[in-house]
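Subgroup meeting minutes
Present: P.N., E.W., G.H.
Scribe: E.W.

1. P.N. recapped why we're keeping a running log of single-chain structure predictions: easier to compare across weeks, and new members can see raw inputs and outputs side by side.
2. G.H. added today's entry (308 aa).
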Amino acid sequence: MDSQTGAKVDAGSRAGIIDGKAFAAGVRADVARHVARLKSDHGIIPGLAVVLVGTDPASEVYVRNKGIQTREAGMQSFEHKLSETASQDELMALIARLNADPAVHGILVQLPLPRHMDADAVINAIDPAKDVDGFHVLNVGLLGTGQKAMVPCTPLGCLMLLRDRLGDLSGLNAVVIGRSNIVGKPMAQLLLRESCTVTVAHSRTRDLAAVCRGADILVAAVGRPRMIRGDWIKPGATVIDVGINRIAEGDRTRLVGDVDFDSAVGVAGAITPVPGGVGPMTIACLLANTLTACCRANGLAEPEGLTV
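Output recorded in log:
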């Protein structure tokens, strides 16, 4: 029985499970070491500001966890909460103050925002150098043209897991299922940087199963529970499941990915579970991006292995 997923797996299959929780702990420890060195050698403390608008329970938990892990890494954590009825002008004014604050190296506005706010305008109001989510249009363009950018946290975490598992990705066939601005598109750009041959598939892809079967690397980020079945996967492929879906099972709910883990685990060469796979990497990479932004702002060398 797999402790992460509750699925029955044999010893041989279990060896291929990618432990994102353990890897993320290593990333956070690495960040903390770099932060301690910045403090001792330069008197600099990286600072992350997180802005939450409204009282969405899931967002509140996520923001609280970000604050805890930021402080545990030795960074400064600045949390700002606005009411559900706050105006967009109020939010824009707060972002302007954070842009101008030298103690703040990273700014993250928690999504989703209330319906009366323009999320694109809010994201693009953040200083691109402090855009640790990597969503600003300038960072999107820099990433797409192969230049130095702030990289979205979840795709960055996926790439770290792939590099750790496979080493050189050059020449591998990669299929990304999903074309969102947050995961699918930047994931494809990162894999292109690694010299993969990349296909972006989506809901209108013809014979999606056949496309998936050609993948050495399969990244599922479509937001549909257990959509990708084991018979869609090339034997020995590396599967990165970005999906986090809540499904009802009797009188309780359970988290599952976009991949049907039970049928996929015996086919894939390596696979991330849900939970315990990609999820923990997102906050770890947020901390890494904040550290990177701080180093860039102060003209210092960027930490190796924590950026691209």
